[in-house]
């Protein structure tokens, strides 16, 4: 019997659908995919494809790490529903993390921003496991001023609404580190997403 520890990582809170497969604290494979308005129908097939490509079965999984928002109201629920269902059915460890943290670079001070519409941004700031600023909604003016005042911070997320072109892809290694640094979710059915109204 194999002692390998496999984990599935998921996030559908923002413009990219992120899925990754980890083995013994290393990333085996990851995908950042764009399926506008089709994440709900594409997530499970893409998970099956990722597992098949790496010759891993669902029963081989030990844990799931999932981003729980903030982000798209519908998008957040897609990955969460899959993660909660699989974790509960197979009695897997479930780790839930703030989706903005999932986009940060673990080894670099990071500012994470996504478009919250109406002249506002989802905003958070991290330095490894140190949360410098919790996820919140700020004005675009505040976000731009903060970026200007912190030129040594890596910009992550989707900043096109601020006129800044950055990669909007998740760093799979950083996501894995952040996810597994969280406490295991004990009440899987009771896990709640982080919605816009909560910030």
Q: Which geometry do the CA atoms define?
A: globular
By DSSP, the count of extended strands is 9
- H/E series: EEEHEHEHEEEHEH
Distance between the termini: 46 Å
Strand order of the largest sheet: 3-2-1-4-5
Q: Classify the beta-strand content into a percent band.
A: 25-35%
Structural class: alpha/beta
The main β sheet shows up as: 5 strands, mixed
Rg over C-alpha atoms, rounded to the nearest angstrom: 16 Å
General description of the model:
The protein has 199 residues and is an alpha/beta fold. It is built from five helices and nine strands, in the order βββαβαβαβββαβα. It has helices spanning 39-53, 73-90, 99-103, 140-149, 172-180; strands at residues 6-11, 17-23, 26-33, 61-67, 93-97, 110-117, 120-127, 130-139, 154-157. The strands form two sheets. It has a five-stranded mixed β-sheet, sandwiched between helices. Strands 8-7-6-9 form a four-stranded mixed β-sheet. The longest helix has 18 residues, at 73-90. 41% of the residues are buried. The mean pLDDT is 93.
